[in-house]
Amino acid sequence: MAKPALRLAVSPCPNDTYLFGPLALGWVSLPFPVEFVFEDIETLNRMALTDPPELIKLSFAMLPEVAHRYEVFPVGAALGRGCGPLLVAHPSVSPEEIPSLPVALPGEHTTAHLLFRLAFPEASHRVFIPYHEILPALAEGRFAAGVIIHEGRFVYARYGLKLVLDLGRWWEEKTGLPIPLGGIFVRRDLPREVGRALLSALRRSLDLARERFEDLLPFIRHHARELAREVIEAHIRTYVNEYTRNLGEEGRRALVELIRRAGTSSPENLFWEA
Prior knowledge:
About 40% of the residues lie in helices and about 20% in strands. The chain has about 270 residues and is of the alpha/beta class. It is globular, with a radius of gyration of 18 Å.
């Protein structure tokens, strides 16, 4: 009887398809079958609560809600400096007006929402829509301001919008730490030898993504929202860095600080260990 496939649920964003692409394309082998699921980050956040796959990409803001079920994997993090969500608005909007305006946000469970709440605690008119609909909604005048993530940071000027606050820079100035946006989580009931095989495969996949980028680009484009090569490359440069290969001690401290500032206690044994 064939082994059931492990479900690997990740986002279609270029940083994830860059990391997971060689594995999904079969350039890296595993001793067990896997099944890929590609969904936007807020859908993944909700999936972790209702139908949890063995491995999943989640917003780090989700950690208190899923820590009983998942551990943070040391590979695959979107964490760094100069890569945080951006609060953008129509040119006539001033920062002082933000708390009284409806603001479009990319999901209730996202780290972007948590950062916005920390930076503007008095703002209560928060509206959640899919992240890729925020810039068009602002351009159509449905909202005066919104928080954008992923490739939106590279294209918002095309929509006639201005930057109000770089929430990532705000975090870095407040804490001195890189901003932890999202990462790979593995279920606590996953056998350690399976986790070790996944860890080794993902680091090999990351190496192959760098070595065979031209071969991988069609796969990344197939899943991406913005298809221009310069946008895809800028996205990967921004969100794939040394923390992607290894979360490290500073990455762990940033994550614990995010949980503390969210007003929740840090669960024990947050991080997967071999």
